[in-house]
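Module 6 notes. Inverse folding takes a fixed backbone as the condition and produces residue identities as the prediction. Think of it as a translation problem where the source language is geometry and the target language is the twenty amino acids. Below is one complete input and output pair. Work through it position by position during the lab.
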């Protein structure tokens, strides 16, 4: 970028900030210092720069301050802002207020939804969110269309099929994972989540996922005979599950597939309980099936969850706890204390640890949250341990 473009660009940015804060101080870019890039220019380069600066001054955007000596070749001491809007017009750039107004108009139909208002407030302070500014408003509109589509269905949707339906582009939706993450996060400054967690939480799937269950008892299915839970496990569609028949000693949800398979092999030796695979962050349709199963339990056995000891693991636990509460059950942690496997895992950063504690508390595990160690540990690395 040429020095004149860089200088005028800085003036515009500073002017935008001054307008926001209400400052009336003079905004000046000086070249007097001998260390200024201005003095590294050749005479021809300096002449071209002077010509461009005179054009901006003629447009009423800036005022030029020249050195007192040097005759017709005297150097330029400083450039002073005269009019922000004229400078923006001269540079053929929209002002932040113009861009923000356009963004607000695009997002107006979703006022009050998700993080839309918080997003606009952040942009109004000339702040970006994960490098996304008001010029990305159209992408947020597409992400909000996805959320609207998912709100209208009780079933999971396949990512590329929905993307083609909404946008005529099978890969468009996948490019919106950051925008969907921000719109569905607790706050805009929440840590970024993996795309699979973001999609799973709203019911978007790469391909159809069966509801996997292992242990004793039967599933009640829509318009079908009751289905015994065969060994090592049974897989059915989330939407056909109407309830459960049986009296298990306990019920355990497991986050990761590898651990689920290991657990089902162990459980098959003495199937006294029930294990459900959450497929990472459970989708809304998975949650509905889970609620129907829990609501069918007559003797209300202990309900447990076992997942990763990290940010995502405790977010998943908090979501499952919400589903459990809908059925009148209380979710309890299983093997979610780092003290069970000392000297393992990695140190959690302060922000990660705060998120873990916050979501443990959201899951209803206040005591665990208070004592939670700042350790990151994946479920697959833990020794297999099922409820008695």
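Target side of the pair, the amino acids:
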């Amino acid at each position: 970028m040429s020095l004149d473009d860089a200088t005028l660009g800085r003036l515009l940015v500073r002017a935008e900030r001054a307008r926001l804060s209400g400052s009336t101080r003079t905004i000046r870019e000086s070249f007097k210092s001998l260390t200024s890039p201005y003095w590294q220019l050749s005479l021809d380069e300096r002449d071209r720069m002077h010509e461009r600066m005179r054009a901006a001054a003629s447009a009423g955007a800036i005022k030029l301050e020249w050195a007192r000596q040097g005759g017709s070749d005297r150097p330029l001491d400083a450039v002073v802002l005269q009019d922000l809007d004229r400078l923006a017009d001269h540079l053929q750039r929209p002002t932040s207020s113009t861009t923000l107004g356009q963004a607000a108009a695009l997002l107006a139909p979703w006022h009050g939804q998700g993080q839309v208002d918080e997003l606009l407030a952040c942009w109004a302070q000339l702040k970006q969110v994960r490098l996304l500014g008001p010029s990305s408003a159209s992408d947020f509109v597409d992400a909000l269309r996805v959320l609207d589509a998912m709100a209208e269905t009780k079933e999971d949707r396949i990512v590329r099929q929905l993307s083609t339906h909404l946008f005529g582009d099978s890969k468009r939706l996948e490019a919106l994972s950051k925008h969907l993450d921000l719109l569905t996060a607790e706050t805009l400054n929440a840590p970024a989540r993996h795309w699979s967690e973001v999609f799973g939480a709203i019911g978007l799937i790469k391909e159809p996922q069966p509801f996997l269950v292992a242990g004793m008892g039967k599933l009640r299915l829509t318009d079908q005979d009751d289905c015994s839970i065969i060994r090592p496990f049974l897989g059915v569609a989330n939407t056909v599950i109407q309830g459960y028949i049986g009296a298990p000693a306990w019920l355990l949800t497991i986050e990761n597939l590898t651990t689920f398979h290991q657990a089902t092999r162990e459980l098959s030796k003495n199937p006294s309980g029930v294990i459900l695979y959450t497929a990472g962050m459970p989708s809304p349709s998975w949650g509905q099936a889970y609620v129907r199963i829990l609501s069918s339990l007559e003797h209300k056995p202990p309900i447990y969850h076992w997942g990763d000891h990290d940010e995502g693991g405790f977010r998943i636990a908090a979501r499952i706890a919400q589903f459990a509460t809908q059925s009148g059950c209380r979710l309890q942690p299983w093997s979610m204390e780092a003290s069970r496997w000392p000297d393992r895992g990695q140190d959690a950063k302060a922000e990660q640890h705060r998120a873990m504690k916050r979501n443990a508390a959201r899951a209803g595990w206040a005591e665990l949250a208070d004592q939670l160690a700042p350790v990151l540990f994946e479920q697959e690395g833990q020794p297999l341990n099922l409820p008695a």
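Reference fact for the lab report: The two ends are 69 Å apart (CA to CA).
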